[in-house]
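Final report, Chapter 2: Outcomes

The project's central promise was a pipeline that accepts a single protein chain and returns its three-dimensional structure in a standardized token representation, suitable for archiving and comparison. That pipeline is now operational. To close this chapter, we reproduce one record exactly as it appears in the project archive, with the input sequence first and the structure output second.
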Amino acid sequence: MIEDGKAMYRYIVAQEYINKDLVFLLGHSEGTLIVQKISLEYPDIAGLILLAPWAQNMEQVLIWQANRLKEDFEQGKGIIRRIARIQWKLMGDPLKVQSTAIKKMKGTDKAWFRYKLQKINAKWFREIFSHDPVDTISRVSCPILAIAGDKDIQVDPKDTIRIAELAKGEVEYHIIPNMTHILRLDEQTPSLLHYRKLLKTDMDHSILDIMYDWLQKKLLIRGSLKGR
């Protein structure tokens, strides 16, 4: 996926109608890792926009996710949560299941395997486990806009603060109240069970406003430096 991103960037900047000094890359979730990696090889990139980024290794992220899932299903109400609690008694709670799955992913050289009736993409996980997000972000020198939601239960929203502390270049970050990992607002206690309904609504427009303002500032700065 990183190689695909690099190929697309090379194609874009080769076009006559594109100002290659004013190309910004945007990524969401896993995409934030991809655009960071691309920026390390192409110093002409004007900046990065990171939506729901993380600054921990994937193993820590998975354990953090399992904790949030466990909290939701143990404390929340509803038939689906009651069924899940019964299943945990039979198959193990999310933390134990996740820890065992991680060990199996690391211990196999197969592309896929089945665990607890689920098909696991072991190759993808092994590749992303090898990534050191702290090392990567600490070498990114272009400007960064990082946006997270305080109701994200898939990555820690506080990682936007860590990115601001780690990055080599300038970082502006925002943690939007009630925003989830899928960039929709949720007034309730956050839960994966809300995703299907939330996806029928629009992305939170405040994200677009923040991006627009940041891009305007960056374009003005780069334009003045270039004498435009």
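Archive annotation: The domain at 2-57+132-225 is CATH 3.40.50.1820 (Rossmann fold).
This record, like all others produced under the grant, will remain available to the consortium after the project formally closes.
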